[in-house]
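Trying the structure run again after the queue cleared.
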Amino acid sequence: MREIWFATLFMLAVSGTVPAYAQPAKPDAETTKSLLAINDQDRVLGKSDAPITIVEYASLTCPHCAHFEATVLPDLKKNWIDTGKVKLVMRDFPLDQLAMKAEMLARCVPADRFYPLTESLFATQQNWVVANNPDGALQKQALFAGVGKKEFDACMANKGVEDQVAQSRLTASKQLGVDSTPTFFINGQKFTGEPTIEAFTQLLNGLAAKS
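Done. Tokens:
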């Protein structure tokens, strides 16, 4: 029954029709800070003690997220993440059931394979998202990443992982006001505007000067 209720609530959230009783009040600054704090489920790209934290809510089927991955993240990684100034945390915000499965897959692999796998899924997005059999195409991408059929099937049947991914979306949507992907929070503040390398560099330079 719990799984049925959760799946129903997730689908309502995706359609934007979550009932009023499931909509908490807008959090204050301290609650927002708590919601964005790095936790044991997060996968961190960069040094854990980097002074600037970027939290990205993304969907693996989102073309805008794939564009950010391909055109902005490499420069961010070279100039900010690899230099120890910034750490990035990508959190799940699946836009559809296929994204849900892809993000479950990423959560099932060891932590050190999370970002290589998500990078691969973004890079090959057009191969599996628009395939005639997207589920089969996703499983094929999993095989390329070293995830066998038995491991893949076990992951897709893991209700704990499914709930974790769905809860990430629900929390972001109903408590942080996330309504599109990618959405970024930088040191707890929601980033607005076009996520270009120029915009990120300007903002990060300002934060670095204060740290």
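The longest helix spans residues 159-175. Worth checking whether this holds up in the mutant runs.
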